[in-house]
């Protein structure tokens, strides 16, 4: 026997290392498996093996936490051998750390084991689905919230708070205590028309205070007419001789663009290299050009030689810029693409591989070989080496190769497997690239077994499909001596998924004499409950008590038990045709449907809601080790106290293999705690105890949202309940858009849980259609070309007749040489043109029709066919024809109170002598409510831009007054409320754009770099506080503004001015500090803060002191007096209110039945065509006086109301046609005052009022007003101007009458202009095509008025017909410090100037021709003071180079 050759010390050492019970006889075996991390409140399982029992035993599994203990499982076991998995539920615990104790007791049998566990609450899975990932300003954001448990069953969860956060971290919308019904809810909110651009978040706060967030983007995106797509390889191998670039133009409805394609291919010189090499260091470029084919594409094979791919010093990318010029219109759009140059020509990676090696069983793995484009490389040899063993394997058609090594002679503690395809040549050269082939490596540890018995699962590659029966192969090698006389051996398997034990089973292996090595198989059903990944564990207990095991991770298809199917009744449909959407799922499911344009899914399909995205929400149970080394005898396995042995003066020290793993590691690696008396550890030396302390972990579910570049409108966003049949059918009307819609459904069932449908398509298709191209507007007398383009998307040619409907509004002359019909072949277009001279003013409709003809004529060599689905398409498009000159507006307002005998009023409509012929038009409107006009125009109260922090308030504040008024008078309807609240939400969001970090607000926010404005901050503070009654306003915005204002309060109670006054026309006559302090005091009292509040009390002291010291003088400004009167009225100081009103009464301008106040030194009103009825400041101060008269306790007296009615009559006469006034402050204060007056005098009339308006000729119109229609705007066009009209009012009650007269006059100088304005257009040299298509507008402006400087000035540049501004050049103007903001609005460019002095300011921007218009007229540039709109200057400019003549500049 060879054993005699060992030296004596080695024999002694081996004896010491042998386990004590190596030769013991079979004894009772206990084994309980429990997940090492458990969910509270969710069913978990414990798997129990009890073998070789010779008596009845009781099994107890107890949970211990703190000082308490709770039984989870109790079983009486009578069988000799048993295996089963039993469910139990962990209660919710105050602590995450706990212990589980397993006790087995019989008459003679006693086993106890205690281990620490980590217990966590099973958090719900919550996700948000928005109808779009990208929104444009002003759109409505719609989203769903879904909550399910870890088994995907719906949860009726409550969210204490849900809010929207903008990119500045401001809460802009909020919901509280939202309860999900059947696991789902839908919410929405409107974006402002000018929000912060960037990433927004929907943030959900759970009851556990955990946060869920989902992001979406808000960006300004103008949908192009077509898209340029550049297709080229992601990578180009540096040895390739050529590569392909394909450029395609596709319209938004997916059809090809005919036109010229130009491709520019470049390799740029690296900026990091020297530029000393002259032309050799320049970019290398090539250009190709060709007409697009019938698919809208041009494909070019590019030779790589010129780009020197092997040479360094250049960027490792090839970049392509492609331009398509549309055939019909000449419109050019550009697309981009790039490819990385790579010298890595191949890569290897393991797709599956054994984690351990087991001597005697083959070591297996699967590798994938891919090329530089990540494509599989088939039929190639790869070399695999382990230690000194080398083998060759060949890849299959998928680039995969299965490798295998015989491990019988492996003895090391670990092995390293290296796989190589080609060897790299390590040649170091700074100028040239070497080819690289990436190899792969994997290390595997030896699996320890004292008896050298092993079991190994064969690798399962790929993803397992739900519903299939999966067979699992296993190999084994067993120690014959260990088996003794056993005839069979039971193998146990269990499947652990989502952190819990899901399935279990056994396989009984018959052991014949000598059958100690072989293979067997078992199978299980793949079901949704084990997705997305499962761990399969196979193990057995040998007769000597040793456990052998193996585990493998399985990839499972992401599937759901609730099978959802969605289908359209027809997969193709015509625009505006009928269709049906059918949804099928588990009976009584709640289904949420969505249908969006295909481009949503094209850009980033992984961002859409999908099984993968839902499964990613599943929290992973961490694999928590139990630290067995701290308790070496936990399973009755003793550690060895190995000592040095001295022999023949030599010291022999025992050495332990540290790098091999025992079977315990198998169980630990998949998160199972094992309670057993069997052998699970390798022999180990005794070590100092190491205590294990469970560490609490937090799990947060975050929904990631990837953002896309383009998103169209959503078509379907509905909830549908399914009945017992499990299906529902929705009738639908297909939108007019020619596109492909993608629809999907999300369903929730109480029995089967969540389900997602596959995405289905609906192609909206029209065989041919017509498109009209015309400018936005022209000036009367100009001539433009109207183009009608027929697109044929049939596979064959058609004969088409295109006709333009005759109209008296224009004269159209065809440019088609009397052709009656046109040939249009498949995927082609035909454009037909007319020269059009508009004859009437206003909106002119153009109606064009394309008829497919039944014709025998051929199109070239092709026969024409008659389309079956659609043979006619009609398009109506409008154009605005503007008169020459400048538009002027006169408004005549009156409040008439009816009587039974009737009240009459005459009105004479006259226009000046220099009126532009045909430009005069007038409307007559009747309303039964004093605020009726404003209610109908809440977002259009002023015909002015709204682009700064103060102007935005006129979009926000009047909604509060209207809601308050309608509430008080019990006239508020859901429709009006909904509309007003949506405006409040939008205005609130927009106002936050102008907030500073310190809590203040200014005209342009932090953009202008200035400090906050005291006036505006007080205005916003009051408005936000009042808006809280109707919308969510984040408290911090109110407290921040109040804190900032209180810091501006001086010791005497007055407020220090920060920023400038909103309107410098109200300065003078008194220290601005008093005016400012009165304004702020009013704002604080209107919030409302009590008069006893510290800041308010001190502010009132300031006002009292100021009034006391100047009340005897006449120097105080009327504006300041009006503010003081209202402030004291709000504070309840009636004596001072009366004193001020008496003083104001002496200064009032009193007319027949009205009264008002004007600025000192203000000239008497002279009605001219260019002046508004009253300056803004005078409307504002008169409105403050009206508020003072109406603010008294308990209610205004009859005398107060009498005076108030006279003031109201004057204020009403100043209203513009939209219910607003001249500017921001006067509109806001006047509407507040009118609403307060309306509420104070409101009475319901029992009798209707009739209004009759008649001309001196035949025109007559009658209106009826009663309580039901008092908010209805009734309007009629007055047919004749000039003319005299009579109005008669009969009945009971007051009516609000308004006549709006508009006309144009030719600009001419009248008196001194407040601004010096010069407008020039360049270039003067008209050579070249671009000189006729593009030109610069140069503007030079300064202030020439009576004040030191102007207020904010708006420069409004109207575009010449057919021209549009080049937006980047307009945006660039904002880089000038004096220019605060720019806007492009339809055919106008608006430039905001902070203020002007007598120093000239110059700027210019670029415009380009969008459509050709002949006989071009000059366009107007108007500069005006924002607050004093009667201060304005007008200039004209012309195109420097027009087609028909070389015109000079204005």
Automatic annotation (TrEMBL):
**The keyword RNA-binding is assigned to this record:** no
Domain (Alpha-macroglobulin receptor-binding): give its ranges. 1350-1437
Start and end residues of each Alpha-2-macroglobulin bait region domain:
455-603
Q: Which residues form the Alpha-2-macroglobulin domain?
A: 714-804
**SMART domains tied to this protein:** A2M (SM01360), A2M_N_2 (SM01359), A2M_recep (SM01361), Thiol-ester_cl (SM01419)
Q: Per its record, what are the GO molecular function terms? A: protease binding; serine-type endopeptidase inhibitor activity
In terms of InterPro entries, this protein maps to: A-macroglobulin_rcpt-bd, A-macroglobulin_rcpt-bd_sf, A2M/Complement_sys, A2M_N_BRD, A2M_TED, Alpha-macroglob_thiol-ester_cl, Alpha-macroglobulin_TED, Ig-like_fold
> Which locations, inside or outside the cell, does it occupy?
Secreted
- What Gene3D superfamilies does its record include? 1.50.10.20, 2.20.130.20, 2.60.120.1540, 2.60.40.1930, 2.60.40.1940, Alpha-macroglobulin, receptor-binding domain, Immunoglobulins
tRNA processing: present as a keyword of the record?
Answer: no
Keyword vocabulary terms for this entry: Bait region, Disulfide bond, Glycoprotein, Protease inhibitor, Secreted, Serine protease inhibitor, Signal, Thioester bond
What protein does this entry describe? Alpha-2-macroglobulin-like
Q: Which organism is it from?
A: Marmota marmota marmota (Alpine marmot)
This chain is encoded by the gene named: LOC107160646
